[in-house]
Design goal:
- This protein has five helices and no strands.
- By secondary structure, the protein is mainly alpha-helical.
- The longest helix has 17 residues.
- The mean pLDDT is 80.
Length: 71
Amino acid sequence: SLSDRTAKSADRLGTDRAIGRIEGAAAILVSLDVMNRDIAKKKTDAFKREMRSKPRPGWVGKVFGGAEEKE
């Protein structure tokens, strides 16, 4: 599904762009009467919570290397 592919590519897209992609897709589905507005809102809110709850490395980890890069 689009949400699965977007979640997998979130590192490349960035959190805000990934959320925007899902919101845009939901808006299209609502306008085509494929999905109602309430269901679309619930699904996009769930995706937002999932994306924002994942830890993302900040600039310190990118510049100085984080624990996940050490082997």
